[in-house]
Fold this sequence. Notes:
alpha/beta, about 220 residues
Amino acid sequence: xxxxxxxxxxxxxxxxxxxxxxxxxxxxxxxxxxxxxxxxxxxxxxxxxxxxxxxxxxxxxxxxxxxxxxxxxxxxxxxxxxxxxxxxxxxxxxxxxxxxxxxxxxxxxxxxxxxxxxxxxxxxxxxxxxxxxxxxxxxxxxxxxxxxxxxxxxxxxxxxxxxxxxxxxxxxxxxxxxxxxxxxxxxxxxxxxxxxxxxxxxxxxxxxxxxxxxxxx
Length: 217
């Protein structure tokens, strides 16, 4: 393995920092139900984190649904914003505060579009991050490396100085393709689906066991 350091830590948001992933699934489920389709967890959790319009399109194709994926996405976002509750996983606030204290650059890299992020995350939390990359900031989303590469560029660090914390297979693949070191947490899928990550932990509160994370705090 090449020599690595930790000057920046990049976090996925839903399912990694925030306990909102089940709320997103419920919103998708209700949106597709309005079109007569009952989606299952396997339609969402293994592929969450990818481009949201692409995910809607793929689910439509799987169920042979002729509805407009854009309309379903818009319905889903409306349902989510009307019903969401902001909640962080145990250990998130403490780690973020320690990283800031130790002058480690931190960022969020999410598939969520900026309008939704702006309207669902308290500003006092989002302001803690040096950079926030949203799903509409790059033409290609996860599993392509583009979102993480843009974040690394904006933070003015190198891939070998970057650690990514992710919960989803597409996010892990995207981060690995950027050249960063990847830590996965099993908050939404089992470790067998996160095998590409460099390290895998049961929950967010366990990631401080990583030598690279512990070196930052």
